[in-house]
Each structure stands twice: as structure tokens, then as C-alpha cells.
Amino acid sequence: MKKISVLVLAAAWLSFFSCVSGKTGTESISPVYVTNTKKVHILSPENCGKSIDDLVLFSGIFNGNEMQFPVLVESNKSGISMVMMNQVGLEMGNLFFDGKSLSFASSVIPKKVKMEYILADFQFASYPFDVVQRQLEKAGLSFTEEILQSNDKNGETKILRKIVDGKKVIEEILVDSKCTVIRNNLRGYEFTMETNNE
Q1: Count of domains forming the chain
Q2: What is the CATH number of the domain that holds 26?
Q3: Per-position DSSP letters for 130-158, written without gaps between them
């Protein structure tokens, strides 16, 4: 696979999300189009369930290109914060969502980027299953969750979540205690978030 600089790839990958959104509605935050015609709104942080405060290694594949950079993620009932850094620890951008407004600032990532899509994938993966399921069902989509037993020596279970439109699997999310893998079959991207937490 081709390898390009972190800054260029981060901007390219995030710019992808500026092309998949529909028109902005009357709400202050644009809806997310999970398919080309079915949309949902970002959930309030009050629905987060467990709090998260992690340094995550983000690895992504988009259009055959690889990228990797650390992200400091904080999620609780007050909001979601993400600080994106390059490989030497310098900040590339920061995002904050408090349930009422969404702010994003970056010197390298275009302002037109729709950060709602980043938040949506994060919520699909980490928010309580029943909360996400209700939200997706409102849009006419199915959301399933399956507990998988690992074959490794630790015997750790994994959770497989799927967003389904009819018989078509739109997105697959595989989660364990240290890693989350999100594969979007419709948009053609895949990324992994890994933590070093014990």
C-alpha cells in the first residue's frame, strides 16, 4: 500500500466526510447520512454510558492509502473531546461536542470537513447498544450486536455490531477491551482505534 505523510492523509481521509453529507436541516448540527437516503442525528453526550479517557492510536485505510496518528479521546455525559496529533505529539486539530454545538479547529484539516461522521462512528461503537439501536431504527435501519468468544489464551470476548439496511450490511464494528475496528462497506473505509490500557 502507498504511504503518504500523516498530515496529508489525515486531511484527505477527513475531507472524505465533507462529501457524504446531505443538506443541513434546521438543527444546529447537520444529520449524518448512514446510507445515501437514511439519516440520523448525533446522540446527546448524556447517552454515553461509560466514560472514556484514553490516548488512542488511530490507523486508517482509505483509497488504498494507510495513515496512523494518535488521538486523545475524552467522552462523558458532558461531551466528547478529540485532540488529533501527529507522530511527534504536535496537535493537528481538536474537536468538541457538548450536545448543543460542535466545534472543530485545525491548521491542516479543511473547515468543510463534516466531523459529525467521525462522532457518529464513535457513538455507534462505544455508546450503549439499546440507545444506538433506537436511534438507527428511527431511520429505518437495523442495529445488531453479537458476543463473540475469543480463541486466544486470555479468552476475552469481543462484541460485533452491525448496521444493516434491509439485507445489506452497511457497517461492521468489532470491539474488545483494547481495540475497535470499524469497517464501512458502503463508503469504502476502515479504521482501527487501539489503546494501551491494561
Answers
A1: 1
A2: 2.50.20
A3: HHHHHHHHTTT-EEEEEEEE--STT--EE
| Residue type at 37 in one-letter notation | T
- In this structure, are strands 179-184 and 168-175 parallel, antiparallel, or unpaired? antiparallel
Length of the chain: 198
Q: Answer for the pair 17, 80: CB distance below 8 angstroms, yes or no.
A: no
- Please state the pTM of the whole predicted model: 0.82
The strand pair at 39-40 and 52-62 is best described as: unpaired
Non-local (6+) Cβ contacts of 136 within 8 A are: 34, 40, 142, 143, 163
Q: Are 69 and 7 in contact (CB under 8 A)?
A: no
pLDDT digits (tens, 9 = 90+) for 138-185: 999 999 999 997 666 666 789 999 999 999 999 999 999 889 999 999
* Phi, psi (rounded to 5 degrees) for 45: -60, -20
Q: One-letter amino acid identity for 51?
A: S
